[in-house]
Every structure is written in C-alpha cells, then in structure tokens.
Amino acid sequence: MSHDDQAVRLPLPARGPLDAPDAWKRLRERCPVATVELPSGDSGALLTRYDDVKALLSDPRFAHPTAEDASARLAPEEAGGSSADGTLSLGLPLTGEAHLRWRRRVVRYFTAKRMTELRPVIVDITESLVGGMVASGRPADLKAALAFPLPVHVICDLLGAPPDERDRFSHWSDAFLNVTRFSRRQTAAAHGEFAAYMSGLIAAKRADPGEDVLSMLITQSRAEADGLSDDELRGIGMALLVAGHETTANMIGKMVAMLLADRTRWERLLADPSLVRRAVDEVLRFDANLGGFGIRRYIGEDVRIGGETLPGGTTVFCGLSSANRDEQVFADPDRLDLDRSPNPHLAFGAGPHACLGQSLARIELQVVLEVLLRTLPDLDLAVPVHELRQIRGLEVGGLSEVPVRW
C-alpha cells in the first residue's frame, strides 16, 4: 500500500462538526489507498476515491468482517461489541448464494412502490412528533423530539411490533451500534434480549400473520421448499432495526443542521418545495460523517485496486463520504448544491450489500423536510454551527443534539 511516510491516524480531524476533513482531498490526490491506524491500535487500508470505493463495494467476494476474519477492531478491547472488531453478529450469511437467498426475499418487501404506500403513515407520525415538539416549547432538541423516535415508530410498524416497544428498540439499537459507550457484557445482554424478543414476535406472527415484513416472509417461506428458518427470520428482524433506526435518526439530525447552517438553503426550499427530493440526495452526498471511518470490507484474497495490490487478510475502510466529494465525479463537490442532478452518490453503498431500505430512508427524510418546511418555516438552529457536538463511538456518525428554535 502507498502511504505518506507513515500510517494515517483515524479519526481524521475536521474544522467543524459538519465539515469534511481537509486530509481527504490530499489522500484522493496522492494516496488513494492509505494505510490507517485505528483507535484500537490496529491497522487497515482506507479507500478515498469514488471509483475505488464503488469497485470494492460491488465485488461480491468481499463482505463486512466477522469475528473470525476481522484483522482490525474499531475500538480497544474493553469497548463494546460482541465480536472481535466491535461488530454484532446477527447470524445471517454475508457472502455467496446463502446471502443472496435471504436478501432476495427481503427485497421483495422493500420495493419503492410499497415504501411509497407507507408515506401517509410516516407523514402522520412526523406531524404528531413535530406537534409534540412545538407543544413542549422552544428551544428544543430536534434529534430527541423527532429524529430519534420517528425511525423507531417506522421500524416497529414494519416489523408489526407494538408501538409501545419503541423505547426498548431504541436501547437495543444504541447498544449494537455504539462501540465505546457500552461494554461487551452490556452489548451481549442487549443482543440476547432482542433475540429473545424477536423469537417471540416471530412465533406470534406464525400464529396470526399481519401485513408486516415478518408475516410476509413467513408466508413466503411456507410456500417455498427452501424457506427461511426462524434463526434467519430473527436475524433479518434484528438487522432491520440496526440498519434502519440509528442511521436514519442521525441522518435526519444532520440533514436539518446542514440545511440550517446556511440559512439561504432553507429559504430556497421554502420558496421551491419541489427541490426537497434533490435536497435529500444532496445532503446524503454532502454528509461528512457517513458510516464513521467508512464501510468495512474484509479482503480474503489479494486484490488489485487503485493501482495497488491489497493483500489477503486486510480490513479495508471504504470512505463513502470522501468518495462523495471526489472531484472526478462531482462538480464543485464541497458545495451543497440543491440543484445537483444527476447525483450518483454512494451514501447507501453499492453492489450486493447496498442498503435494502434506501427507498424507505429517502421517504422518511423527504417527509421530515416537507413537514418542517410546512409547519415551522421559521425553524433555525438555536446554537452556532460550531457548537454542535458529534457523537463519539457510534459507527454511523451523528450529532448528539440538534438544538432548534422557531
């Protein structure tokens, strides 16, 4: 691997909580396959160019590292996580035909059409949460009042779980994704609690199917010779919570902060709400905190990428946020451009592991923006941008609070 005299230490410093590290541009130009050192002391490789990141993510041979093959941990040994690198095992195969088997079944549910049918429900939930935030008075923490609870409501709805379970879902999600706040024991306990809960929910759905994703998968499996097992159904349910809750919650908070950081952006959307869809994709591209250090891939064999040979046994961090600022793909990439189209960003990954719920995530973000623009046109940040605080330790990246006024 090429490097500039020594390994690059992660996390890379940035000037402000919403800013991209200056080092990304230098790495893309001079060191697109960089040796990096993690807070744990382990090392890996970091890809920063769009074409390299997309190529590796699209390669079906490579998946997220497991406890057995991870060569790099995100955090020191005493930190959270139920496997060697701080990741959570959900019991689902991540490569090969077995991976495609369960993914093909789930993707049947997450169609753009079905997700669009959920829009009225998401609008109702969002309006209710915004109403509650307004009733509680200003200033408010938009993340606590809206961004965090909304995806939990939606995930509970998707899984057919009672809405009053959302506080438990929130705790489980946080325990799975925060690699420093929770100990291994706490993470393992949360894993066990949620696995037991999901087993009970699956049994209830078998006895009395509904319109939710678990019921649909159970019904499908009854009609197919190689239907999904209860272990696979449980893993899918847990994966939907982990992938669909905290990632979207943090993106809602960051989206609103980015659009309010420069008031002219908000005013532009107020003047032309038809820009909301493009705005959502542009903030996804512009986000400097996608997936923490980047999406991880374990390289089980030598692979040629970016003009370098990555040896088998390497953990590679695919820098989505850096790739989305690549000057070779995006004109004026460090400007948040509400008119940008097309916008082939990699915020949802690429290839066989691309985010299954991206249609749902886009709809949630669009609805939040539409409701806020309509009901709180005077919305503004209650603190200067530089006072916003980033969450430390969370793999998906985010702001700890988003203080707003109106």
TrEMBL record:
Gene3D superfamilies reported in the protein's UniProt record? Cytochrome P450
Which InterPro entries does the entry mention? Answer: Cyt_P450, Cyt_P450_B, Cyt_P450_CS, Cyt_P450_sf
Which residues lie within the region annotated Disordered?
67-88
Q: Which CDD domains match?
A: Cyp158A-like
* Record carries keyword Membrane: no
Provide the leader sequence positions: none
Cofactor dependency:
heme
Q: Which UniProt keywords apply?
A: Heme, Iron, Metal-binding, Monooxygenase, Oxidoreductase
Establish whether keyword Oxidoreductase is in the entry: yes
PANTHER family, A to Z: CYTOCHROME P450 BJ-1 (PTHR46696:SF5), P450, PUTATIVE (EUROFUNG)-RELATED (PTHR46696)
Query: Which family would the database say this protein is a member of?
Result: Belongs to the cytochrome P450 family.
Q: What protein am I looking at? A: Cytochrome P450
